[in-house]
């Protein structure tokens, strides 16, 4: 950008180059990312439908009531729920331009996300040790596909949080990083929404059956 | 927009505009997040308590936890995802409603069709499909 010595015409050129385009790009990114999230919701819908169809096909293997440990699932749910409110605090700190607080809350969110993943992997390990592997029955195939797809999303969310911690450390809370943090926030909160479906329809209804 | 200050104005306008565009997404208040969190704690604790204590009969519990799940999804959508009719000129809400319709069709349709397909098939072994 040339400054000071420019004529009025040049100044106008600068205005068209940086101003409008930048604003538009940011605005449509949010809507575009939202539409991506909706398509992600469709992936989960097909996995939920598959699980719903296959959830009673035990093939002589174990049923949900013998497998699922609700206290562990409750703990896991609490981890993810708490990570949602801590991300909310990060969003607020971001709005107030407090760099340190934003990074702090992001780190706390990552810790709770990591706790969630660890508990989930511990649960998977237990199931597999008991012989309830994905290949044991259609029910277990569908269960592992649905829950692990969610877990994989959380893993990528964690990678994204780590990347943002570095980005904010290097460049601070500029417009680009703010936009990225808002997208990451939508992603993170949507994973919590999907988990509501998982703990209700897979775990709670499974034990009830 | 003319004169010597023209080159600073668009930057300021840009920042303001960007903030305004994303309004419906990332801009909750502390109070909003806390209300949403408290509601979702209750909406999570109640279904777990219902199933783990077995206070109500199984069918009643099932209906109750499904209803509570839908309420909690709504709470998260409003308080955490900040979906409202004004965000992005209503396009986020429209995309959400459209997705909701498709999700319902996919899940309900699959269950409906596969249940009927199941009941019209010959069982593989006698007694392997109780209640069909």
From the N-terminal CA to the C-terminal CA of chain A, the straight-line distance is 67 Å
CATH topology of chain A: Four Helix Bundle (Hemerythrin (Met), subunit A)
Number of strands of chain A: 0
Nearest-integer average pLDDT of chain A: 90
Helix amount of chain A: over 70%
Rounded to an integer, what's the Rg of chain B over CA atoms? Answer: 24 Å
Determine the fraction of residues in helical runs of chain B and give it as a percent range.
Answer: over 70%
What is the strand content of chain B?
under 5%
**Largest sheet geometry of chain B:** none
The SS-based structural class of chain A is mainly alpha
Instruction: Please state the overall shape of chain A, judged from the principal axes of the Cα atoms.
Output: elongated
Gross morphology of chain B is flat
What CATH architecture of chain A do you see?
Up-down Bundle
List segments of chain B where confidence is low: pLDDT < 50 over at least 5 consecutive residues: 1-26
Count of discrete alpha- or pi-helical segments spanning 4 or more residues of chain A: 6
Element string of chain A (H = helix, E = strand): HHHHHH
Mean pLDDT of chain B: 80
Sum up the structure in keywords.
heterodimer; A: 209 residues; mainly alpha; Four Helix Bundle (Hemerythrin (Met), subunit A); 6 helices; 84% helix; elongated; B: 132 residues; 5 helices; 70% helix; 0% strand; disordered N terminus
In short:
The complex is a heterodimer of chains A (209) and B (132). Chain A is mainly α. Chain A contains six helices and no strands.
Report what the structure shows:
The complex is a heterodimer of chains A (209) and B (132). With 209 residues, chain A is mainly alpha-helical. Chain A has a single domain, classed as Four Helix Bundle (Hemerythrin (Met), subunit A) (Up-down Bundle), CATH 1.20.120.80. Helix content of chain A is 84%, strand content 0%. Chain A is built from six helices and no strands. Chain A is elongated. The termini of chain A are far apart. The model of chain A is unreliable at 17-24 (pLDDT under 50). Chain B has two domains: 23-82; 86-121. Helices cover 70% and strands 0% of the residues of chain B. Chain B has helices spanning 9-21, 23-26, 30-53, 58-79, 91-120. Residues 1-26 of chain B have low confidence and may be disordered. The radius of gyration of chain B is 24 Å and the shape is flat. The longest helix of chain B is centred in the last third of the chain and has 30 residues, at 91-120. In chain B, helix 3 packs antiparallel against helix 4. With 132 residues, chain B is mainly alpha-helical. At the A-B interface, helix 1, helix 3 and helix 6 of A face helix 1, helix 3, helix 4 and helix 5 of B.
């Amino acid at each position: 950008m040339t400054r000071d010595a420019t004529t009025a015409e040049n100044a106008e050129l600068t205005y068209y180059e940086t101003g409008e385009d930048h604003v538009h790009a940011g605005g449509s990114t949010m809507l575009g990312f939202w539409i991506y999230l909706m398509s992600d919701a469709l992936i989960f819908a097909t996995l939920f439908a598959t699980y719903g169809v296959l959830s009673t096909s035990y093939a002589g293997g174990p049923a949900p009531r013998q497998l699922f440990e609700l206290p562990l699932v409750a703990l896991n749910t609490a981890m993810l729920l708490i990570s949602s409110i801590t991300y909310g605090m990060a969003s607020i700190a971001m709005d107030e331009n407090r760099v340190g607080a934003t990074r702090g809350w992001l780190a706390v969110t990552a810790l709770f996300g990591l706790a969630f993943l660890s508990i989930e992997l511990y649960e998977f390990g237990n199931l597999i040790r008991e012989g309830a592997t994905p290949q044991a029955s259609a029910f277990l195939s569908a269960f592992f596909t649905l829950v692990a797809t969610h877990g994989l999303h959380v893993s990528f969310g964690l990678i994204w949080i780590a990347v943002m911690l570095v980005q904010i450390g290097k460049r601070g809370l500029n417009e680009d990083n703010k936009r990225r943090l808002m997208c990451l926030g939508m992603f993170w909160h949507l994973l919590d929404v999907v988990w509501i479906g998982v703990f209700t329809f897979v775990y709670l209804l499974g034990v009830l059956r | 927009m003319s004169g010597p200050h023209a080159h600073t104005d668009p930057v300021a306008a840009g920042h303001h505009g960007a903030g305004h565009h994303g309004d419906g997404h990332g801009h909750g208040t502390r109070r909003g997040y806390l209300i949403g969190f408290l509601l979702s704690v209750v909406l999570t604790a109640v279904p777990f308590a219902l199933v783990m204590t077995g206070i109500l009969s199984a069918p009643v519990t099932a209906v109750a936890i499904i209803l509570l799940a839908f309420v909690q999804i709504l709470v998260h959508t409003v308080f955490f995802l900040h979906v409202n009719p004004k965000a992005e000129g209503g396009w986020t809400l429209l995309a959400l409603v459209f997705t909701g319709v498709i999700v319902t069709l996919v899940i309900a349709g699959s269950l409906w069709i596969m249940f009927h397909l199941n009941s019209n098939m010959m069982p593989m072994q006698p007694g392997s499909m109780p209640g069909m």
